[in-house]
Amino acid sequence: MKRIALLPEGSVSHEAALHLFGDEPVELLHFKQISDVFLATASGHSDYSVIPMENTIEGSVSLHMDWLIHEVDIPMQIEWIYPSVQNLIGKKEEFQAADPSDEIDYSKVTKVLSHPVAMAQCLQFIRSQMPKAELEHTGSTSEAVELVKKNPGQGWTAIGTALGAKRHGLDVLARHVTDHDNNYTRFVLIGPRPLGLNYPAAQSKTSLLVTLPEDFPGALHQVLSAFAWRKLNLSRIESRPTKKRLGSYYFIMDVLEAVDSVLLSSAIGEIEALNCQVRVLGSYPSLSFGEQKAEVPK
């Protein structure tokens, strides 16, 4: 049975993992901190780790990308998109409105807790309904829900998932409180070996880490040209600091092609011939929300 490291029960990561694996038997190992999720697989305690990488509203999760670059050397094995549906969670009886026509009296909310990314996704709702409430960041949405459960009667609420509310015996006070309807999160599963699941309709993707040579005018242009003239589609390009000196950056490039294809292999060869360093962060199937496994090998 595969052992999967991920953030706590009731988090979006938990929902996303349940969606990815479906009925396949896996052992889920929950950790409070994303660093422990990475280290579980790096140490061999788990076979894979579920890592949120990018959100529609907030963009890339820089901390998680930096962990993949600087702290561990574990390839991405699959990518999937999952909707981040956030809700306001608490104990309903604490916030009963005097007017029967109103279900919730938001003026009774003294504090809103959540992961900073989830909080940022719901700021319009928070400012319009609870402008005087204190905002407090937690390590995960699930941790926020757990803290609300442990501190009854203080007017605390959490931004989190319906699964998190159910797991901790709390109520969903307001559903779908994100500021935008198209709020999706891109997850990757990292691990030392391929997952062994068959997705025939999935798009192949390869993530590369490219380091340009110093004192090479136009190097980035030439790197991009290596993809362009071969008509290789880059779905993302992002710069991250090398942490070696000011103004020194890596470039993370997602190419919609398998790494062993003739076109991408030759493009990488051309880039390396420019004296660039290329590290493959993973070559994997990329799934959209709703795509299901066609076959799970026995």
UniProtKB/TrEMBL annotation:
Residues 208-285 form the ACT domain. The record marks T185 as: Essential for prephenate dehydratase activity. It catalyses: prephenate + H(+) = 3-phenylpyruvate + CO2 + H2O. It comes from the Bacteria. Its EC number is 4.2.1.51. InterPro entries: ACT-like_dom_sf, ACT_dom, Chor_mutase/pphenate_deHydtase, Preph_deHydtase, Preph_deHydtase_CS. This is Prephenate dehydratase. It comes from Paenibacillus barengoltzii G22. The lineage of its organism: Bacteria, Bacillati, Bacillota, Bacilli, Bacillales.
